[in-house]
C-alpha cells in the first residue's frame, strides 16, 4: 500500500512539474507577443513602462490580465491610453485571449488577418481608432464573440456574410465608418443581439424584415445612412426595444398612430430628417419611459402638438421642428419639469409663448420661424438653466430686461432677430460670460443704455 501511495505521489509530481513547465513555456509566448506589440507602437505617456523583458511574468503588466489556472494572458485592455501605431499581428499568439480592448487610441492600418487565430475571443473593441481597409471577412471565424465594435474608424466595403456565423453576438457597433450596400436578410439569424448600431455609414436599400426576428434587441441605430422604403410595421412590436433611431435617411410612408402600444420600454425615438408623411402619431401616454422624441423635418400633415406629450414624466428632449404644426403650444408642456431641450422651429404655431413652470430645468428653447406674438414671458428670464434661446422670425414685441444676463448666467446663444422689439439693448449683455451668439437684427432697438 505504501509503494502504491509513493507511486501515485511521484506520478502527480511529474504531472505537476510538466504542467508547470508547459505553462511557463507558453507564458513566454504571451510575453514575447506583447513585447513585439509594444515595440511597434508609440507610447507618449510611457504607460507601458513596466512591460519589460526582465519581468518574470506579463500578468502584472499595465492593462494585462491573466487566468488563474494557467497564468496565460486572457485580457488586454488599453483603452484611452494615447497609444499610436500599426498593430502587430503577433497579438494573434495570445491564444488564451478572451478580451481585447484597444479603443480610443490612434491605431491605424488594417486589422491584422492573423487575429483569426484568436478563437477564444469574446470581446473585441477597436472603436475610436483609425483602422482602414475592408471589414474583415474572417470575422465570422471568431465564433465565441459576444461584443464587436469597430465604431468611429475608416473601414470600407460591405457587411460580410461571415458575420452571421457569430451566433453568440450580443453587441454589434459599427457606427461611423464607410460601410456600403444593404443590410443582409441574414441579420435576423443573430438571435442574441441586444444592440445593433450601423449609423453614419453608406448603407442603402430597405430595412430587412428579418430584423423582427431579433426579439432580444434593445437598441437599434441605423441613422445617417441612405436607407429607403417604408418603416416595417412589425418594428413597432418589440417589448424589449428601448432605443430606435432611423433619422437622416430616405424613409417614407407613415407611422402608427400609437407608436408606444408595442414598444412599452421605449426611451429614445428618432425618425427626424426623412420623408415621412400622413398623420403625426398623436398618442404617447403609454411611453412612460420615453426620454427623447425626435420627429423633425418630415412631411406630416400638420395638426396640433399632441397634448399628452406633456404628461410624459421622463421626457427630456422634444424635437418637432419643420412639421407643419399649427395652433398654440400646450401650456402643460412648459410645466414639464424633466424637459431639457425643446425644438419647435419652422412650424405654423401661433398665440403667445406660455409661462415656464417654476421647477423647469430647460436648457434649449428654439421657437423660431413661427407666428408667435405678444411679449416674452418674464419666466423665461427667471430660468437660470437656459443656454440657448431662439425666438427669431416671429411677431414678438416688448423690451429686453436690463438684468437679462444676470438672470441667465449660462446663456450661450440668444436670438430674437426679425421681430418687433423696441427699447434699448441691455448693457449687461457684455456680462454674459458664455455668450457666443447674439442676434438682434431687424427689430427697432435703440443704442445701448
Which descriptors apply to this entry?
449 residues, mainly beta, Leucine-rich repeat, LRR (right-handed beta-alpha superhelix), 17-stranded mixed β-sheet, eleven-stranded mixed β-sheet, 35 strands
Largest sheet: 17 strands, mixed
CATH architecture verdict of the domain at 329-449: Alpha-Beta Horseshoe
Mean pLDDT level? 92
Share of residues in helices: 10-25%
Report the top-level CATH class of the domain at 329-449.
Alpha Beta
Determine the N-to-C terminus distance. 108 Å
CATH superfamily of the domain at 329-449: Ribonuclease Inhibitor
Task: Write a brief caption for the model.
The protein is mostly beta strands. Helix content is about 10%, strand content about 25%.
Amino acid at each position: 500500500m505504501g509503494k502504491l501511495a509513493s507511486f501515485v505521489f511521484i506520478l502527480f509530481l511529474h504531472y505537476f512539474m510538466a504542467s508547470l513547465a508547459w505553462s511557463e513555456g507558453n507564458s513566454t509566448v504571451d510575453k514575447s507577443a506583447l513585447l513585439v506589440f509594444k515595440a511597434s507602437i508609440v507610447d507618449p505617456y510611457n504607460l507601458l513602462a513596466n512591460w519589460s523583458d526582465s519581468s518574470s511574468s506579463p500578468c502584472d503588466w499595465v492593462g494585462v490580465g491573466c487566468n488563474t489556472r494557467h497564468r496565460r494572458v486572457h485580457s488586454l485592455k488599453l483603452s484611452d491610453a494615447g497609444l499610436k501605431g500599426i498593430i502587430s499581428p503577433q497579438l494573434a499568439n495570445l491564444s488564451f485571449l478572451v478580451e481585447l480592448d484597444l479603443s480610443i487610441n490612434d491605431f491605424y492600418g488594417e486589422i491584422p488577418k492573423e487575429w483569426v487565430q484568436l478563437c477564444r475571443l469574446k470581446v473585441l473593441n477597436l472603436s475610436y481608432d483609425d483602422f482602414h481597409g475592408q471589414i474583415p471577412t474572417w470575422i465570422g471565424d471568431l465564433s465565441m464573440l459576444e461584443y464587436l465594435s469597430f465604431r468611429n474608424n475608416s473601414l470600407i466595403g460591405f457587411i460580410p456574410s461571415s458575420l452571421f456565423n457569430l451566433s453568440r453576438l450580443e453587441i454589434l457597433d459599427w457606427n461611423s465608418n464607410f460601410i456600403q450596400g444593404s443590410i443582409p436578410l441574414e441579420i435576423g439569424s443573430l438571435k442574441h443581439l441586444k444592440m445593433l448600431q450601423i449609423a453614419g455609414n453608406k448603407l442603402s436599400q430597405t430595412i430587412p424584415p428579418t430584423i423582427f426576428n431579433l426579439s432580444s434587441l434593445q437598441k437599434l441605430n441605423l441613422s445617417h445612412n441612405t436607407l429607403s422604403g417604408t418603416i416595417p410595421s412589425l418594428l413597432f412590436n418589440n417589448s424589449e426595444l428601448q432605443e430606435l433611431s432611423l433619422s437622416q435617411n430616405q424613409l417614407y410612408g407613415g407611422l402608427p398612430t400609437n407608436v408606444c402600444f408595442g414598444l412599452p420600454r421605449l426611451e429614445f425615438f428618432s425618425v427626424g430628417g426623412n420623408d415621412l408623411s400622413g398623420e403625426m402619431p398623436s398618442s404617447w401616454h403609454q411611453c412612460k419611459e420615453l426620454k427623447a422624441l425626435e420627429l423633425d423635418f418630415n412631411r406630416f400633415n400638420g395638426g396640433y402638438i399632441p397634448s399628452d406629450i406633456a404628461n410624459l414624466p421622463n421626457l427630456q428632449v422634444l424635437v418637432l421642428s419643420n412639421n407643419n404644426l399649427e395652433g398654440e403650444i400646450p401650456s402643460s408642456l412648459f410645466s414639464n419639469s424633466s424637459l431639457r431641450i425643446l425644438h419647435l422651429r419652422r412650424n405654423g404655431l401661433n398665440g403667445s409663448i406660455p409661462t415656464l413652470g417654476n421647477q423647469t430645468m430647460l436648457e434649449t428653447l428654439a421657437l423660431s420661424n413661427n407666428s408667435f406674438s405678444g411679449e416674452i414671458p418674464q419666466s423665461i428670464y427667471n430660468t437660470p438653466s437656459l443656454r440657448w434661446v431662439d425666438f427669431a422670425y416671429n411677431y414678438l414685441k416688448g423690451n429686453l430686461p436690463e438684468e437679462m444676463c444676470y438672470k441667465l448666467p449660462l446663456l450661450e446663444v440668444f436670438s430674437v432677430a426679425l421681430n418687433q422689439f423696441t427699447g434699448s439693448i441691455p448693457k449687461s449683455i457684455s456680462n454674459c460670460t458664455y455668450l457666443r451668439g447674439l442676434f438682434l437684427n431687424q427689430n427697432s432697438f435703440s443704442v445701448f443704455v
